[in-house]
Amino acid sequence: MTLEQTIKEILPPDRDAMAQAKKHWDSIAKPLHGLGDLEDILVKIAGIRRTPRMDLRRKCVVIMCADNGVVAEGISQSGQDVTQIITENLSNGTSTVCHMAHAAGAEVIPVDIGVASEVKGERILRRKIAYGTKNIYREPAMTRAQAERAIEVGIETAYLCKMQGYDIIATGEMGIGNTTTTAAVVAALLHAPAELVTGRGSGLTTEALAKKIHVVTQAIEQWQPDQHDPVDILSKVGGFDLCGLTGMFLGGAACGLPMIVDGVISSAAALCAARMCPTIRDYLIPSHHTAEPAGMLLEQALDIHPLIDAHMALGEGTGAVLMFGLLDAAAALYCNGNTFEESNIEAYVPLS
Predict the structure, then answer these.
(1) Distance CA 62, CA 99 (A)
(2) Nearest-5° angle of CA 338, CA 339, CA 341?
(3) What's CA 271's distance to the chain center, in Å?
(4) Does residue 138 sit in helix, strand or coil?
(5) 127-175 per-position pLDDT tens digit
(6) Segments of the chain with pLDDT less than 50
(7) Kindly report the CA angle at 59 between 181 and 252, in degrees rounded to 5?
(8) Is 316 a catalytic residue?
(9) Which residues make beta-bridge pairs with 320?
(10) Which of 221, 299, 316, 346 is catalytic?
């Protein structure tokens, strides 16, 4: 499905299903809104899935894997070989997020959307647009056609997950150098100075951070991405992983799949999607506050309020995967909790 067709398919969440879910929460024998934000998220999920029936048993985390040519400028501790290694580890179940996903009962789906080398692994979805992006310090990251195709890969992946029967998806990424491209995308989206949105990523010295800020500043100045055109921004200073995640949020909304936002990279992609289709904001399920400086700005721009504040900066969708346990616990009460009537308890009423 094309980008334009997908956007046309996105409808507002089902308000009737949300009202029924809220009514059911209020019937359970507990203080009204006693689970706070968790209740609100399950009500949102009811609207996204267009039914008050809550079934989140089949879950997965989709990891968009891609390399970024800007690594050549020395803005990362690691080289591009690490992207290949971790992508293959995602396939064989040994990467960090795999262990966390296993604990949460979730499948891991790695997508090679732009790794700079051939990767081995039976579980990898092979959707390579190119062998990494160009170096945004020297030239635009990709063509507009490549950006659109990468977004469509994300859309198609969301629909594939729907067809395979998944109930909810966590979003993640893997790609050395992608906090640099993310900083550039956020700077362009929010018309913000590079020093305000650029962080240390997986760990940089103060000197290396200054260079990273310079690289982001120069990329924005040279290629002049259009603040009002997310595809232009992604093509000039973004990455294939960011494009794929943008498509995941669009595709998830179009086919009624709840999508959990991870950290700063996932959030930047969510904002790109929301700029293309403002209704996307009603479909976002935030997970955790990110340690990257752009995180708070993205939360404000998206009007999302992450539940987890654990100073995480790991990537791979690990923060989003942590949300599965919280949602499972809330869903267990939603589906199985005794009502006031069943408990022979007088129902609580809202107090002014």
Answers:
(1) 14
(2) 125
(3) 10
(4) coil
(5) 999 999 999 999 999 999 999 999 999 999 999 999 999 999 999 999 9
(6) none
(7) 55
(8) yes
(9) none
(10) 316
Q: Is 116 within 8 Å of 80 (Cβ atoms)?
A: yes
Calculate the alpha carbon distances from 91 to 63, 75, 133, 314, 341 in Å. Answer: 10, 27, 22, 18, 49
Give the integer Cα–Cα distance in Å for 45 and 234: 29
**Stated pTM of the model:** 0.97
d(CA 281, CA 118): 36
Distance, in Å, from the CA atom of 321 to the CA atom of 267, rounded to the nearest integer, reads 15
Supply φ then ψ for residue 28, to 5 degrees: -75, 140
85, two tokens: 């290694």
Measured over the CA atoms of residue 48, residue 106, residue 314 and residue 66, the dihedral's sign is: negative
CA distances from 37 to 9, 43, 304, 324, 332 (A): 28, 10, 11, 14, 15
Cα angle 49, 1, 251; round to 5: 30
Tokens of 244: 């794929």
SS3 state of residue 193: coil
Report which of 69, 111, 117 is spatially closest to residue 243, judged by C-alpha positions.
111
Among all chains, which residue has been given the structure tokens 């993205």?
298
pLDDT, tens digit (0-9, with 9 covering 90-100), for 170-212: 999 999 999 999 999 999 999 999 999 998 877 778 888 999 9
Both ends of the chain: CA-CA distance in Å?
Answer: 49
Residue 76 structure tokens: 């990362």
Query: How would DSSP label each residue in 50-65?
Result: TSS-----SEEEEEEE
- Which residues are CB-neighbours of 167 under 8 A, at least 6 positions away? 49, 55, 56, 57, 58, 59, 257, 258
Q: How many CB atoms lie within 10 A of CB 149?
A: 19
**Lookup: tokens for 219:** 């990329």
Nearest-angstrom CA–CA distance, 179 and 176: 8
Q: What is the pLDDT of residue 352?
A: 63
With contact defined as beta carbons under 8 Å apart, do 260 and 169 qualify?
A: yes
Instruction: Give CA angle at 270 (269, 274), nearest 5°.
Output: 120
